[in-house]
């Protein structure tokens, strides 16, 4: 176990650096091809030169490497001294950014010179609530549906699960979100709001067309379900195939031959093995759901991180987009690392490799 | 060892302690698949006495493993169904018992060892958990007591450092050690009948001999009835008392081990024996049985072996299949021409 | 770790299958065996009504994209605000949109960008990812180490987030940049699949045999190993076409994809989302076309996988 953890941790460092570089190179390339993104922010208006200067400098967009197309901005000519090992070069923009992120916890600023970390801190409670709802929903309903379908292979339940999951998977989440918002939130919600006897938590909270600050949990239930819908379908299918594979396994037959009750044969010997891939998927999906929240929060007007990204993207405030996405990517990477460690806890074969 | 007998089992209706521990009568099993019905077992009968070893010999796909699974009641169903016959444990027909009663017979009275211990043991639980589970669920022991018993069991099957190894996972054992764990698991509740389905096929030859010796020793100590399912004529000759030879879901010859080796009365048995390489016949061409066993969805009419048989005549190609002829008071063979086959030597 | 399924869900569309394409589809055996595998697969597919319907649907959408004139004589840009949001009629089966443009012709012309982006990006990832996976799987060692690490890194960047960053910063949101970003972020999945099947077929006996008689590396790769990787790659490519159609629409909806006045289903949906209650058809037509296309690709991929995997027969 110890060796596995250490190896996994050592692998984690280059992965983080690599992903950070990928993100850095994507943005640098884009800037190199389309110019200083800060200027574009102001559209047709001419920005006050002092402000433009301050923001550009603060974000490092004045680095000369951003003027050369294709330059990865790893190193720059040394201004003083002989640079690294006398090569005449010193560490460039990429390393400046890394230092900002990891040593100063600085993910940049927005146009009004507010820290991105502040913006995220304001937004994160909403996103977390949304994620909790989504993950619970997909785990409980997805696993239940998958287990039912897998145990009764070929039955009506099985076909129902198989067909409905394909449909859910094929509907892009933004289409699903729109349709749910309009049908459930607006149309059905209006009917509910017309009835006096229904408590407000239900009619105005849960079935509202968007986020309501008065009902921070209730009004996030439906957006959370939309966010979890696709992964729910994937979870159900994964559970189903996994159960079907394991139910015929030799060790399940052994468990039966041991005279154990069916409940125990399925509940302990089959499920324990079948759920290993499902749980790892759910773990990885926490990261994916953070990305998915961009769409869901935009549709349901939830003031979380996802909407922050879309709003900034729409106004062209790229520094915020870069900062928030960098932060999200780090969270995703950490989630993936934890999932890998969890995997080793769940499956002893990995642990003793 | 067997002080804690399961009281409920003695209350099985119709249990006769003097009856044979296992008696299978005219067992029929079929598999209902999309490509038709496969008749995997077509009227198999045999019995086994306490302390005796009954070998069931046959090629893969002849229905011998299915017979074992039907006795244990662990057929995958669907597609497998027992459609007829009786499986008697001390006079009680297991097929007529409700599942809740039958479950208590498994492992307690009739236990089974599987071929491939690596896949037959659950990869995510320790060996101790899987052994202890038997004591906890059948005997209501605490986790601690169950673990102590598991260590004893591992000692019994001669696994070194049992106390430490009880916490290991199946994949941490070698092939031979894993099969010992399987044996320990089967013997845990002191069964009267042990079914071993190709217990040594997946192992190296030297390890095979050790495992068979261990099985024989434990059987002697406990006066167990052993049903040994195998395709290996060598293993059979070493340990079996009586042999049932199976072909296409039927027993085609049944006899004591010496009788069969001395003078087989069915052409198939004879073919099997002739296909064993023998040092004294070195240099001569090895005779093999021509052709392949029939698909179980499409068993030829008459004697199922007739297309491959050098003795076959018209009568062999017509239904009904030859009944078991009494070759001697203690042996039978399902061949119209058993006299020729036997005397031909 | 965050592999295909999460990339798919992040796009908000197609999953790319929880149960993933099988990498072991064609068994051992030479060219003859694989020829009959394909023939069997084709026969089975033609008997599968789901596949046939999905295939016909894709043919229809494909012909809309390739020959819009075949489907409509109207010009989607001939707009007149007097006709804003007029309901569907015989002459104008989808009615008019908010700007008073013919909605049916907009929907027909809207098929083009989705299909072109999906096809170009899929072609790109199949070729590039295939080559990368082949090199990594065949040579192993440090080549594999470098390529695999690169794949891990790209895959750990959630697809949607990476695409938003790139498209926001580059500010030129057109067919080419969308294709580029889909390609950049999705190639490792193909590479991973190819690498898997190359590694598993590298050790097959007939490959050893070919090596023993002195076949060159390139011949080994293309004649003996590549054919085994083709089946899983094709299954994935079919499904990923659907994911890319969904991805284009999602990015467009978020405002970082195609921009009006371009025609695209994503634009149709995002522009008219607020009129859903009064004129639901404004939303239902493009949503239906989009979902049908994605669904068809996924169903085709599923059917293809079942047909190519002998285990399912």
TrEMBL record, chain A:
It is a multi-pass membrane protein. The chain crosses the membrane at residues 12-33, 130-151, 163-180, 215-238, 274-300, 320-346. Keywords: Cell membrane, Membrane, Transmembrane, Transmembrane helix, Transport. Its main location: membrane. It is found in: Cell membrane. PANTHER family: DIPEPTIDE TRANSPORT SYSTEM PERMEASE PROTEIN DPPB-RELATED, DIPEPTIDE-TRANSPORT INTEGRAL MEMBRANE PROTEIN ABC TRANSPORTER DPPB-RELATED. This is ABC transporter permease.
TrEMBL record, chain B:
It is a peripheral membrane protein. The keyword Ribonucleoprotein does not apply. SMART domains: AAA (SM00382). PROSITE patterns: ABC_TRANSPORTER_1 (PS00211), ABC_TRANSPORTER_2 (PS50893). One of its GO terms (molecular function) is ATP hydrolysis activity. GO terms for cellular component: plasma membrane. This is ABC transporter ATP-binding protein.
TrEMBL record, chain C:
Residues 10-20 have a biased composition (Gly residues). This is ABC transporter permease. The chain crosses the membrane at residues 50-67, 115-138, 150-169, 175-194, 225-247, 281-304. Its main location: membrane. PROSITE patterns: ABC_TM1. Keywords: Cell membrane, Membrane, Transmembrane, Transmembrane helix, Transport. InterPro entries: BP-dependent_transpt_permease (IPR050366), MetI-like (IPR000515), MetI-like_sf (IPR035906). It is a multi-pass membrane protein. The lineage of its organism: Bacteria, Bacillati, Actinomycetota, Actinomycetes, Micromonosporales. GO terms for biological process: transmembrane transport. It is found in: Cell membrane. Belongs to the binding-protein-dependent transport system permease family. The keyword Metal-binding does not apply. GO terms for cellular component: plasma membrane. Residues 1-33 are annotated as: Disordered. The keyword Cytoplasm does not apply. Pfam families: BPD_transp_1. Residues 111-301 form the ABC transmembrane type-1 domain.
């Amino acid at each position: 176990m110890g060796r596995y953890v250490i190896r996994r941790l050592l692998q984690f460092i280059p992965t983080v650096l690599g992903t950070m570089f990928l993100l850095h190179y994507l943005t640098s390339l884009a800037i190199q091809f389309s110019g200083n993104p800060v200027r574009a922010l102001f559209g047709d208006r001419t920005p006050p030169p002092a402000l433009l200067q301050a923001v550009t400098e603060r974000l490092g967009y004045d680095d000369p490497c951003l003027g050369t197309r294709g330059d990865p901005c790893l190193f720059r000519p040394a201004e003083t001294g002989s640079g690294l090992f006398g090569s005449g070069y010193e560490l460039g923009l990429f390393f400046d950014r890394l230092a900002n992120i990891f040593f100063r916890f600085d993910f940049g600023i927005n146009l009004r010179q507010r820290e991105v970390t502040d913006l995220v801190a304001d937004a994160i409670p909403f996103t977390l609530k949304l994620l909790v709802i989504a993950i619970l929903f997909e785990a409980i309903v997805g696993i239940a549906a998958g287990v039912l379908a897998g145990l009764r292979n070929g039955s009506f339940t099985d076909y129902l699960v198989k067909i409905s999951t394909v449909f859910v998977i094929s509907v892009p989440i933004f289409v699903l979100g729109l349709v749910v918002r309009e049908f459930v939130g607006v149309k059905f919600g209006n009917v509910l709001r017309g009835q006096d006897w229904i408590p407000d938590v239900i009619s105005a909270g849960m079935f509202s067309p968007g986020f309501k600050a008065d009902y921070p949990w209730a009004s996030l239930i439906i957006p959370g379900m939309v966010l979890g819908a696709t992964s729910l379908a994937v979870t159900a299918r994964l559970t189903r195939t996994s159960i079907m594979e394991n139910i015929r396994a030799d060790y399940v037959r052994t468990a039966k031959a041991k005279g154990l009750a069916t409940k125990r044969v399925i509940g302990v010997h089959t499920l324990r093995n079948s759920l290993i891939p499902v749980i790892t998927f759910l773990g990885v999906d926490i990261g994916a759901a953070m990305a998915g929240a961009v769409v869901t929060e935009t549709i349901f007007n939830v003031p979380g991180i996802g909407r922050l990204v879309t709003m900034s993207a729409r106004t062209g405030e790229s520094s915020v987009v870069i900062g928030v996405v960098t932060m999200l990517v780090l969270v995703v990477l950490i989630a993936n690392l934890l999932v890998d460690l969890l995997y080793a806890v769940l499956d002893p074969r990995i642990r003793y490799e | 060892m067997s002080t804690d007998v399961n009281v409920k089992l003695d209350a099985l209706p119709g249990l006769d302690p003097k009856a044979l521990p296992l008696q299978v009568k005219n067992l029929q099993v079929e598999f209902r698949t999309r490509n038709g019905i496969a008749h995997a077992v077509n009227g198999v009968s045999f019995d086994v006495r306490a302390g005796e070893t009954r070998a069931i010999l046959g090629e893969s796909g002849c229905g011998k493993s299915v017979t074992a699974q039907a006795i244990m009641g662990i057929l995958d169903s669907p597609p497998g169904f027992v459609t007829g016959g009786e499986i008697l444990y001390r006079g009680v027909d297991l097929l007529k018992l409700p599942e809740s009663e039958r479950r208590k017979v498994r492992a307690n009275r009739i236990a089974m060892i599987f071929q491939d211990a690596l896949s037959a043991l659950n990869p995510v639980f320790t060996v101790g958990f899987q052994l202890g589970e038997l004591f906890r669920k059948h005997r209501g022991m605490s986790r601690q007591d169950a673990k102590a018993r598991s260590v004893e069991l591992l000692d019994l099957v001669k696994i070194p450092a049992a106390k430490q190894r009880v916490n290991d996972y199946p994949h941490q054992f070698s092939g031979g050690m894993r099969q010992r764990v399987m044996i320990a698991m089967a013997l845990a509740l002191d069964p009267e009948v042990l079914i071993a389905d190709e217990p040594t096929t997946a192992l190296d030859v030297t390890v095979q001999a050790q495992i068979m010796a261990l099985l024989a020793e434990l059987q002697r100590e406990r006066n167990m009835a052993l049903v040994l399912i195998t395709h290996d004529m060598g293993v059979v000759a070493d340990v079996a008392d009586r042999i049932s030879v199976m072909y296409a879901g039927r027993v085609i010859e049944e006899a004591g081990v010496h009788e069969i080796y001395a003078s087989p009365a069915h052409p198939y048995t004879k073919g099997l024996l002739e296909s064993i390489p023998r040092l004294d016949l070195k240099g001569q061409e090895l005779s093999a049985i021509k052709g392949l066993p029939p698909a179980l969805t499409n068993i030829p009419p008459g004697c199922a072996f007739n297309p491959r048989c050098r003795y076959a005549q018209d009568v062999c190609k017509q239904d009904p299949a030859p009944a078991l002829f009494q070759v001697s008071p203690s042996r039978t063979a399902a061949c119209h021409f058993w006299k020729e086959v036997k005397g031909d030597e | 770790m965050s592999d295909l399924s999460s990339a798919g869900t992040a796009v908000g569309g197609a999953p790319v299958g929880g149960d993933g394409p099988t990498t072991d589809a064609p068994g051992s055996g030479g060219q003859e065996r694989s020829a009959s595998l394909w023939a069997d697969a084709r026969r089975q597919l033609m008997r599968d009504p789901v596949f046939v319907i999905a295939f016909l649907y894709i043919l229809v959408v494909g012909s809309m994209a390739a020959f819009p004139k075949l489907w409509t004589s109207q010009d989607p840009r001939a707009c007149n605000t007097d006709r804003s949001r007029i309901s569907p009629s015989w002459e104008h089966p989808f009615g008019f949109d908010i700007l008073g443009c013919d909605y049916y012709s907009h929907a027909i012309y809207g098929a083009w960008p989705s299909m072109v982006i999906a096809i170009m990006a899929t072609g790109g990832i199949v070729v590039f990812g295939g080559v990368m996976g082949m090199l990594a799987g065949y040579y192993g060692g440090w080549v594999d180490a470098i390529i695999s690490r690169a794949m891990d890194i790209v895959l750990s960047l959630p697809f949607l987030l990476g695409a938003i960053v790139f498209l926001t910063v580059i500010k030129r949101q057109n067919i080419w940049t969308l294709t580029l970003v889909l390609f950049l972020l999705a190639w490792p999945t193909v590479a991973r699949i190819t690498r898997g099947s190359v590694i598993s077929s590298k050790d097959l006996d007939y490959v050893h045999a070919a090596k023993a008689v002195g076949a060159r590396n390139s011949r080994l790769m293309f004649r003996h190993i590549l054919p085994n990787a083709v089946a899983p790659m094709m299954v994935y490519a079919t499904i990923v076409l659907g994911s890319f159609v969904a991805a284009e629409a999602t990015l467009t909806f978020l405002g970082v994809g195609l921009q009006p006045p371009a025609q695209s289903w994503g634009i149709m949906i995002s522009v008219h989302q607020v009129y859903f209650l009064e004129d639901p058809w404004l939303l239902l037509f493009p949503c239906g076309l989009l979902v049908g296309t994605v669904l068809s690709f996924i169903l085709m991929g599923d059917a293809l996988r079942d047909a190519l995997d002998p285990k399912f027969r």
